[in-house]
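Bug report

Summary: structure tokens for Phosphatidylinositol kinase differ between web form and batch submission.
Environment: batch mode, default settings.
Steps: 1) Submit the sequence below via batch. 2) Compare with the web form result.

Sequence submitted:
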Amino acid sequence: MRKAKVLFRGEEAGMLSQHDDGKFEFQYAGDWLEDAGKPGISLTLPKTTEVYRSAYLFPFFCNMLPEGSNKQVVCRLNRLDSDDYFGLLMATAINDTIGAVTIVKIENL
């Protein structure tokens, strides 16, 4: 299993996980849910106590991934398979994002 913290403007908003079978989960952090002033990270992932589950990486996170020649360079430099979307997200979304959301890998899980 691989996990990462999802940060919104530097504050932990939730947790993204990829299970060993390749399926994904996203869950909002309790503190984030309790604060009515905190928004959902995406219109497609509104705030809820329920865990979001998917066989594929959620489209919101896929849209954060590099494409084309940028993807090839990132994969080569980080020794990633081009189909390892979670790995690509961990390699790029810690500091190379357009919006308010960044992703921080949690080590040793």
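Above is the batch result. After comparison, the two runs are identical; trailing whitespace caused the diff. Residues 32 and 74 are 32 Å apart (CA to CA). The chain has a mean pLDDT of 91.
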